[in-house]
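User: We ran a pulldown and think these components assemble together. Before we commit to crystallization trials, I'd like a predicted model of the whole complex to look at. Sequences follow.
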Amino acid sequence: MRRLSRHALFWPLATLALLLVLNSCFNPAFLALSWRDGHLYGHLIDILKNAAPLMVVALGMTLVIAVRGLDISVGAVVAIAAAVATLLTGGSFNAGGEVASEHPLWLALGAALLVAAACGLWNGVLVVKAGMQPIVATLILMVAGRGIAQLLTGGQIITVYYPPFFAIGSGFLAGLPIALWIAAGLWGVLHLALSRSALGLFIRAIGGNPEAARVAGVRSAAITLCVYTFCGLAAGVAGLIVSSNVKSADANNAGQLFELDAILAVTLGGTALTGGRFTLAGTVVGALIIQTLTSTIYSLGVPPEVNLVVKAALVFAVMLLQSAEFRSLFTRRAAADPGAPR
Amino acid sequence: MSRRLLPLSVTILLFIGMAAFGALRYDGFLSLQVFLNLLIDNAFLCVAAVGMTFVILSGGIDLSVGAVMAFTTTLSAALLGIGWNPYATMAVVLALGAAFGAAQGFLIQRFRLAPFIVTLAGMFMARGCSYLISTESVPISDPTYVAIAQARIPVGFDASLTLGALVAIATVLAAMRLAHATAFGRAVYALGGDENSARLMGLAVGRTRIAVYLLSGFTAALAGIVMTFYMLSGYSLHAVGLELDAIAAVVIGGTLLAGGVGYVAGTLFGVLILGIIQTLIAFDGTLSSWWTKIVVGVLLLLFCLLQRLFESRSRRTA
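Assistant: Here's a predicted model for the assembly, 660 residues in total across the polymer chains.
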């Protein structure tokens, strides 16, 4: 039990389990899964599907935070990618009543991802080459990015009429949402890349002590650039999922507050904000906690306005638990009392 | 000394340049009222940015100001709605803002937490609380508030200022005195410059840091009151993203985000530059409002690069 509770994933998983139990107490049908229209159907599936974009963004954010960075522009990049993808896909009814896309779908998706990766690279260049603080460097794109997205869409909400585009966000594959497959695939690739190669070690080294890592021969600049580029790319993928799910792109509101939710998911998962210590699986659990919390609040019939307050309380709690100073308040007391079990 | 003033002078020159550009390009731009309107329309931003200046000078950041402003407007509207005395309302929201800021400062100082995350959670909290008060926009009809909102102070040449703009000017003057002529101001600069040195010099680092966030919470609430006059309504979606504008104004005003270097007067010009961009775009009439964001982003980039240049050069000469 002791060893179990020490495991990095113990607290995130326990929180998630608690939320699920709470939900099933109030709503016995919560955990029920059924097979309808050729795919799984139920609250849990909804949570997994809705959490997918956040998972994807948070995975990118995890790596950025692991190298002592931060990317607060991901929300804006989500909006840009959504704008590019929907503009290039578009769709109009031709004579036969069929819906044709403006450009081939692969081109639209590829262009959106390319633009998103370029945004990430831009952030990386500002951090690595210009030596700016990550918050400041990404603040620039956070402010300008939404303007760029609005410029692309002309301030309008762009609607897509081309059905194949909808599959990304609302389609199902082998009974599970495609969005979930995308998130799982991304996690799998990252997990393999980080655990089967030295990359994970390098990222931990950079986050632990950038100067020492550089002296030890880790190519920190190149790796940090890649990490920021990947974070941009991940935000782009999330942009595709989000815009495909709502069949449109709203430059003003797409990905709003995404950066905060992503940072929250990373923190909840047990990744240290100071860098060096990260867990991809924890981040996925963190994203699930946030989405489950949102669903819980809706299903409990509590006004959705409470959501923000609950989230804030959660962040405060997690923050304090992660703080060595806060924990020492209790351990010191335990140490002072010889009778206390240690 | 002149090198320290370099970013500030660039900011002032940029403002003069933009004003000259507007005057040459558009008829009616060069009038006193147009420039006073910069202050009137951005009074709340100015007040909030002054508090942010202290936080950034101390090496921290406060993302909660926009949410605290929204909370102030909704709480003011709610309290006035149930018949509270307007001055009591103002006192209560100011006290709450200061207490909220101090609580954030305490968490940051006592538990060594990252200011970014603490104030982020504070932003959720304050915005969430204003949603709890009301999700609708609540109009304010209290006679005192309406009278203050409509008051115009003539300054000659057919131009006038609002009380909100006067509050902004007073805040800037008081902050300049606080930053440059008091022990507290010196401690803030020392804290932002190097925390360990500041501690070794015997400065009360902990108290200063908490006071900085308290001040920022207070100015955010004051900015919220100014915004309440400006909008004459309480709405939980007021001032969304205003913290970013405030940070942008501080950076464009020449304050180093790493802390320790900067001037309150620079922040005033930063706010005026953000305002004049919007005015120029409004005068042009053909450009859309989203150009504002792009131009602000570009300016942020230029000033950050300038700061980096300035930092690396001063390090080389040191």
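The domain at 6-317 of chain B is CATH 1.10.3470 (ABC transporter involved in vitamin B12 uptake, BtuC). That may be worth checking against your pulldown data before setting up trials.

User: Thanks, that helps.
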